[in-house]
Design a protein that fits this description.
The protein contains 13 helices and eleven strands. The chain is α/β, with parallel strands linked by helices. Helix 2 crosses helix 13 and helix 6 packs parallel to helix 7. The longest helix is centred in the middle third of the chain and has 19 residues. The structure holds coenzyme A.
């Protein structure tokens, strides 16, 4: 296990948070629930029918795991009334609210989170990213001052610190949620990714707004206006978070290589030593983190959701038990 992950686990255990796992039908989730509680990493609320969970997972000791059955829980009616209030303007009826909570357990978990009955939600082992995030987007909404829910990966270097990555860790955002962010959304992604770098990765953020252009060296005024978008996002983020070390627009080499940074952006305190990288869209971000992972041997922790008013995280459907445990620990820290 990497040092970064070990530190996250230790910090999470000390917080003793209650995390809801809505996917009681998934064997990996049930096994992770058992291990998390045994290791004292967090308290777990598992959603599903207790008899079915026991039947489908013989030999898994669920002592200490709270199992809530949405179809028979005392607070379901209260959650349904609140869900109706929150979504009636969008066409939800009282009947639909109860029906939703009986069938969409991710929404059920989101309502438990809304009520403060749990501290965080982790789902997605057997649901798509969109179906995992939509309940949170609809009822938990964004944190004060943030308009955009986004995501980042903590990228852990295979051999510790190196010339272009002196921290041995970097944060990449947004590689998984916002497909073509606007300038304002990109600024939100930058500020949220910096918070993830500080609070979860444990590094002092120096944020680079990435592009194929460095400080006006390239332009695409005629086509997609992607360079002006990153320039505008940089200005918005600087105005919203004046104390944050953030600059752009930078090509990746100008962001990480001191010799290139000095040449292309001599006045910047971020050029040449950035550790948080904000990609202009999901295409660049998703491709970028996978190159670092496959060619560079980096471990990618995430995607970590950022900007929700309360912590929610999405698992990859290919996740294993250890991945679930790691994401629960990250969620506890958020
Ligand atoms: C995030 C995502 C799931 C949102 O889904 P969606 O179908 O666009 O959601 P909707 O348009 O129904 O929006 C639901 C609500 O969330 C809000 N919302 C959507 N995206 C949001 C965002 N990034 N930040 C904040 N709020 C957002 C909407 O305003 C809407 O609010 P309302 O219903 O109260 O008006 C979608 O952007 C998506 O699928 N992204 C790519 C995910 C993916 O496939 N990633 C690959 C994995 S590596």
């Amino acid at each position: 296990m990497s040092n970064v992950l070990e530190t996250i686990m230790t910090k999470a255990a000390a917080l003793n948070k209650n995390i809801v796992l809505p996917e009681g039908e998934d064997k990996r989730v049930v096994e992770a629930a058992s291990k998390i509680v045994k290791q004292g990493l967090a308290r777990i609320t598992l959603l599903g029918n207790p008899e079915e969970i026991a039947q489908n997972n013989p030999g898994v000791d669920l002592t200490g795991v709270t199992i809530v059955d949405p179809k028979n829980y005392a607070k379901t009616a209260e959650y349904a009334a609140m869900l109706y209030e929150l979504r009636k303007a969008k066409g939800m009826t009282e009947e639909m609210a109860l029906q939703t909570l009986h069938t969409d357990y991710t929404m059920y978990g989101a309502m438990m989170l809304k009520f403060g009955d749990v501290d965080g939600l982790v789902s997605g082992a057997c649901h798509s990213t969109a179906n995992t995030l939509r309940p949170g987007l609809q009822v938990i909404k964004t944190a004060p001052g943030i308009k955009t829910v986004s995501s980042s990966f903590i990228m852990v270097a295979p051999n510790g610190p190196s010339k272009y990555n002196p921290d041995g860790v970097a944060v990449f955002g947004d590689c998984a949620i916002n497909i073509e962010p606007s300038a304002q959304e990109l600024a939100d992604i930058a500020i949220s990714s910096a918070a993830t770098a500080k609070n979860i990765a444990g590094i002092e953020p120096r944020v680079a707004m990435l592009s194929f252009s460095t400080k006006g060296s390239g332009n695409d005024d005629k086509f997609f206006k992607s360079v002006p978008k990153v320039q505008e996002a940089t200005a918005i983020a600087k105005a919203s978070a004046p104390d944050l070390k953030l600059d752009g627009e930078f090509q990746f080499d100008a962001a990480v290589a001191p010799e290139v940074g000095k040449l292309k952006a001599p006045d910047s305190t971020v050029a040449g030593n950035a550790n948080v990288f904000v990609f202009p869209n999901i295409n660049a971000g998703n491709i970028g983190y996978k190159i670092a992972q496959r060619f560079g041997g980096y471990m990618a922790l995430g995607p970590i959701c950022q900007g929700f008013a309360k912590p929610i995280n999405d698992l990859s459907r290919g996740c294993n038990v250890d991945d679930i445990i790691a994401v629960v620990a990250i969620t506890a820290l958020q």
